[in-house]
Amino acid sequence: MTYLRTELPAALRYALAAAALILSQHVMVFLAFYALDMPLALDDYFWLFPIRQLAMLPDASPFVAIGAFAFCLGISGALARLSLRRAQRLGRGGGLALGAMIPTLQIFAVVILALLWPRRDAADHYRAGDPAPPHQIAIGIFAGTALIVVAVAVSALTMGAYGWGLFVATPFLVGLITGFLANRGPVRSVGDTVGAVAAAGALGTLALLMLALEGLMCVILILPLAAGLAIVGGLVGRAAAKRLVDPRQPFYSVALLPLIFLLDAAMPPELPIATRAAITIDAPPEAVWASLTADRPVREKPGLVGLAGLAYPVAARIAGEGVGAHRHGSFSTGTADERVTVWLPGRALAFRVVRQPPAMEEMSPYRKLQTPHLVGYFDTGETRFDLDPLPGGRTRLTVRAGHVLRIDPVLYWGPIARWAIGQNVGRVLSDVRRDAEGRHEAGLAAHSRDGQSPAQLAD
């Protein structure tokens, strides 16, 4: 009964300490808005998720975002530690303790942990004076989750590096650290270890989304590579936990991450991607040329490219004629400013992109994401259309386009980029064929009404 009488004060102390940590995030956001001389809306979003207010600022400095993320990560770590101690005392609630790491969810996790009553066996164990059983697997998951957030913030947001460090080394080390810590003490099964690694990855992904460090589609695109590397790292960490005496050794490898990030930032790849595709159109070159230069939308469906959030053409408009004319290419992510470099009516049209729109549109509740990879890491150079007349009033339309990819590992991202380019090029060619053939048929119908037969028109 003595232990039970102390439970209410313990729960109250936990609730007050956790509330102070959570509210410190609101104070930080309030002070940031005050320093920036910006109005702050004290609405439901502010109380549930204060960091969202900073992420929604359209012109906030990256240093403001970095400081806010670092502060929230520190608070999440303190909450997780406090909640793990609470879960140990209760003999349950390890998953809730990990939930205390995630913005917004941490409020509900803290409330539930404060209201939970200890299991009877946990109370007897505590009364006997023995320490509560350690939640090593939860500690491992917390460490892996924190490493994901720190790695993305340092590599992407601070250094603008998207390469081997972020997409290869980080998933492996997340698995290594999670697997090692989860197996310190009693060694867990392979299934439990893989489950801990998966939990760290899921919580880390959720934290990235909530902190506006990434969008959902980028996470989905890298998932096959990252999941495989993390599982391998988890198994290596499990093996190390059984053999290594010094628990610090696996953490030495984490110190290499900033160096890899620096190398990725200093030596970004430049993978040229040349695309060539052709299509036969049942219309003469004049009709195809009219379709290529018309101010009109692209009516073909974007398919999987659009579903994945990757940029796809929506419409085109050319202001003027001849070399040097402005071409405005409307994409799903914005407008490309283009300059005509070849203008041969009925024969060839080429243009070079001067200003690029973002490469993709992220799935996120935020207006602004701290994701530099959306601009500058995938560029389009010159696109050229050649029109070759064929017998029977048909046209062979050939398109050539050049792109540059600046994200490693190119062996992984290269095929994805080539697939997306191929889908967009095929969509444009199909749309031009449909429009040109429609124009030609409309012209034939008009001439037929004037008394000319299709055979005469073909001659």
What do these coordinates show?
It is elongated, with a radius of gyration of 29 Å. It starts with a helix and ends with a helix. An eight-stranded antiparallel β-sheet has the order 1-8-7-6-5-4-3-2, covered by helices on one side. 37% of the residues are buried. It folds into two domains: 265 residues, no CATH class; 188 residues, Alpha-D-Glucose-1,6-Bisphosphate, Chain A, domain 4 (2-Layer Sandwich), CATH 3.30.530.20. The chain contains 17 helices and eight strands. Strand 4 and strand 5 form a beta hairpin. The chain is 57% helix and 15% strand. About 2% of the residues have low confidence. By secondary structure, it is an alpha+beta fold.
Tags for this model:
8 strands; 57% helix; 2 domains; Alpha-D-Glucose-1,6-Bisphosphate, Chain A, domain 4; alpha+beta; eight-stranded antiparallel sheet
Strand order within the widest beta sheet: 1-8-7-6-5-4-3-2
Unreliable runs, pLDDT <50, ≥5 residues?
Answer: 125-134
How many structural units, i.e. domains? Answer: 2
Mean pLDDT: 83
Q: Could you give the order of the helices and strands? A: HHHHHHHHHHHHHEHEHEEEEEEHH
Radius of gyration: 29 Å
Helix content: 55-70%
Straight-line N-to-C gap: 105 Å
Report the strand count: 8
Number of helices: 17
Structural class: alpha+beta
Question: Any idea what the shape is?
Answer: elongated
| Main sheet record | 8 strands, antiparallel
Proportion of residues in β-strands: 15-25%
